[in-house]
Amino acid sequence: MINPMSLENQVIIVTGAGQGIGRGVAQLAAQLGARVIVNDLNEDGVKETAEQIGGNARALVGNVADPDFPEKLVKFALDEFGDINGLVNNAGIVRAAMIHKMDRATWQQVIDVNLTGVFACLQAVGTYYRYQAQKDPDSAARRAIVNISSDAGRRGTIGQINYGAAKSGVLGLTMSAAREWGRYRINVNSVCFGMVETPMTETIRSDKFADKYMAQIPMGRMSTPEEVAQPVCFLLSNAASYITGQHLSVNGGYHIGF
Fold first, then answer.
1. Distances in Å between the alpha carbon of 49 and those of 32, 38, 61, 89, 228?
2. Active site residue 163
3. Residue 99 CB coordination number (10 Å)
4. How far apart (Å, rounded) are the C-alpha atoms in residues 68 and 56?
């Protein structure tokens, strides 16, 4: 029986793959048969991810906030593997401060990476998808984009207004792209995570904030990168061929909305 979540012979780009969620997604995608382009600004981290995956991975160091980088990313993927079938827009940073203490530079740094960087990579990959669809309208090739958002974008967050605003913006970006590109059979979805066991969350695990957060999770624990990688790979696969413009919450019940 064919695995409906198989990514056999698919080429998947994962940004922010030097650790945590991005590394987990890249590893699972490769296990499901994909060839993976892994990107991160952290050279050591992204090379380690590629080494762990082996011959089906290629690493490209770079910052998604660099205006020239998304085009380089697309070219690198095409040069290495000849096609692109999936993009996981995962690269993100946190720069925390209360609203009254947040300076413009701190605000802009997070917006540049977590929102503008997502848009730029989506635009670059989506432009390639659109060209391929117009060139061969009957092609059954998979063309998917998964944008990584957060519960912070759905219900707000204290001390991270820049992060919350960026992640909320990712939801609007996802819906707009899905409407615009549906005619080309390009699926664009987002996944909203809660608290995941990653290096990014290590700094708050012992704080009172973490205790309060954990108390609001019905399942009573954080998720692992391996757990959150599975729904991302599902949305990349043919099993999700009729799903677009949606926001999937993977949070142990922390945010439940109708």
1. 16, 8, 12, 16, 17
2. yes
3. 11
4. 25
For position 98, what pLDDT does the model report? 97
DSSP 8-class letter at 56: T
Active-site position among 128, 129, 131, 163: 163
Rounded mean pLDDT, 70-93: 98
Quick check: 205 pLDDT over 90?
A: no
**Whose structure tokens read 């290590």?**
202
Dihedral Cα 120, 124, 127, 129, nearest 10 deg: -120
Going by C-alpha positions, the residue among 59, 54, 52, 55 that lies closest to residue 14 is 59
Name residues whose C-beta falls within 8 Å of residue 80's C-beta, 6 or more positions apart in sequence.
Answer: 35, 37, 58
Q: Indicate whether 183 pLDDT > 80.
A: yes
Is residue 14 within 8 A of residue 29, CB to CB? The reply is yes
Is a pLDDT exceeding 90 seen at residue 151? no
Among the listed residues 136, 42, 40, 128, the one whose alpha carbon sits nearest the alpha carbon of residue 79: 128
Mean pLDDT computed over every residue of the chain? 91
d(CA 147, CA 190): 5
Q: How confident is the model at residue 250 (pLDDT cuts 50, 70, 90)?
A: confident
Coil, strand or helix at 200: helix
Q: Which pair of tokens denotes residue 221?
A: 């624990």
